[in-house]
Design brief:
With 346 residues, the protein is mainly β. Helices cover 11% and strands 57% of the residues. The strands form two sheets. It has a 16-stranded antiparallel beta barrel. A two-stranded antiparallel ribbon has the order 12-13. The protein is globular, with a radius of gyration of 23 Å. The N terminus is likely disordered.
C-alpha cells in the first residue's frame, strides 16, 4: 500500500472511530477509494533568452505541478479533477479542470460532461513551448457538453456562458462543436478533425487583451483544423486556426484584427541511448494579425527529448521568434530562447 493511500485511509479511519470499529473504518475507506486513481506531472524548466531588444535574461522555475484525480463512482458516472500550479502564472494552486461525466465509453458510445473544462482545439506538440495555435485559441470555461465516440468517429456539442459579454448579456449564449476521426492499426495512427467555437474572445489570451470583457461589440467565431500522423517512429502534426471575423477590440494596422495561426511539426523517436527512447523534433509556426496579442509573426523550434528513467524525461529546446515588421508595428527583430526541462509523471 503506497504512502498516499495509507494517509487517506488513516484520515478516514480517524473520522470513523466515533461510529465504527477500526476494522470497519478501514473497510469504509477501502470502499470510498475503490475506483479512484491519482496521477500527476512535475516539470522544472531552466531557460535563457535574448529578447527582441537584445536583452539577456535567464531563470529556473517550477513550471508545472499537476495533480489529477479520477473517480469512477458508478458504472455510468465518473468525476475528473485536475489541480494545477504554474510558477510563471498566478503562483496559486487552482482547480484547472473539474467535471462530472455521465456515460461510460466502455459500455456505450455517448456521454455528457458538466463542469469546468478546456474546449476548442487539441494543440498536440512535441515541444516544451506551447504552440501559437494554443496561445490564441485555448478556452477554459464551465460548460455542458454532449459527445460520442463510435468506431473511430468522434464529436461533441457544447454550450456555456463565458466571461466575455455582448451588451452585458450575462447568459448562456456561446456554443461550439468538434468532429473528427481517429484510426490506429499495425503501427499506423491517424487523427484528423475540425473544431468550431462561436466566441474566440473567451480564449484566455484574447480576453486578457480586451479592455472591457463585459462589454464587447460582438462575439467572434473561429475554427481549427488538425491532422496528426504516426507511422513507425515518425510523428507529423499540422494545425491551423483562424478567426472568422475581425476582433474590433484588438487592432492590426488600424482595423480589427482577424488572427490566424499555423503549427507544423515533424518528429522521430528511436531507442538510441542504452535502449532509452530519444525524440528529435523540428517545428515551424506562423501567425497573421496577432501582434495585438503579443505573439510572434513566425517561430522556428528544434527539440530533443530522452526518457532517462521510467516516467522521467529530459528535454532540450531552441526557439527563435521573429517579430512583425516595423511597418506593422513590430520590431522586425528575432528573439532566441534555450530551455531545458526535467519532468516526472506518475
Amino acid at each position: 500500500m503506497n504512502s498516499l493511500r495509507k494517509a487517506c485511509l488513516t484520515a478516514l479511519g480517524a473520522t470513523a472511530l466515533t461510529v465504527a470499529a477500526p476494522a470497519q473504518a478501514e473497510i469504509i475507506a477501502e470502499d470510498i477509494l475503490q475506483g479512484v486513481t491519482i496521477s500527476g506531472l512535475i516539470e522544472v524548466n531552466a531557460w535563457q533568452t535574448e529578447d527582441y531588444a537584445g536583452v539577456d535574461s535567464s531563470d529556473l522555475t517550477l513550471a508545472t505541478v499537476e495533480l489529477a484525480i479520477d473517480a469512477q463512482v458508478h458504472k455510468w458516472v465518473s468525476g475528473h479533477l485536475v489541480l494545477l500550479f504554474e510558477e510563471d502564472d498566478t503562483e496559486d494552486l487552482t482547480v484547472d479542470v473539474g467535471y462530472i461525466r455521465v456515460g461510460n465509453l466502455d459500455h456505450a458510445p455517448y456521454y455528457l460532461d458538466a463542469g469546468r473544462m478546456y474546449l476548442f482545439g487539441g494543440y498536440e506538440t512535441n515541444m516544451i513551448s506551447d504552440p501559437l495555435t494554443l496561445e490564441i485559441g485555448e478556452t477554459q470555461v464551465s460548460a455542458l457538453k454532449v459527445g460520442f465516440d463510435v468506431a473511430g468517429a468522434y464529436g461533441s456539442l457544447y454550450a456555456y456562458n463565458g466571461d466575455t459579454q455582448k451588451n452585458e448579456d450575462d447568459k448562456i449564449e456561446n456554443f461550439g462543436a468538434n468532429l473528427g476521426y481517429a484510426y490506429e492499426n499495425n503501427g499506423l495512427s491517424l487523427d484528423v478533425g475540425i473544431d468550431y467555437t462561436s466566441n474566440l474572445l473567451d480564449s484566455g489570451l484574447v480576453m486578457d487583451n480586451i479592455a472591457d470583457a463585459k462589454a464587447v461589440d460582438d462575439y467572434v467565431g473561429a475554427m481549427i483544423a488538425h491532422a496528426t500522423l504516426n507511422i513507425g517512429g515518425f510523428n507529423f502534426i499540422a494545425e491551423y486556426l483562424t478567426a472568422l471575423d475581425p476582433i474590433k477590440e484588438i487592432t492590426f494596422n488600424g482595423t480589427g484584427a482577424e488572427p490566424t495561426a499555423l503549427n507544423v511539426e515533424a518528429a522521430y523517436t528511436a531507442p538510441l541511448l542504452a535502449g532509452k527512447d530519444v525524440t528529435f523534433a523540428v517545428g515551424y509556426q506562423t501567425t497573421e494579425e496577432a501582434l495585438g496579442l503579443g505573439l510572434a509573426e513566425s517561430r522556428i523550434l528544434v527539440g530533443v527529448g530522452v526518457g532517462i528513467f521510467d516516467n522521467t524525461s529530459l528535454k532540450f529546446e531552441w526557439k527563435q521568434d521573429t517579430d512583425y515588421e516595423t511597418g506593422d508595428g513590430g520590431t522586425g527583430e528575432d528573439a532566441n530562447t534555450f530551455t531545458v526541462q526535467l519532468a516526472v509523471e506518475f
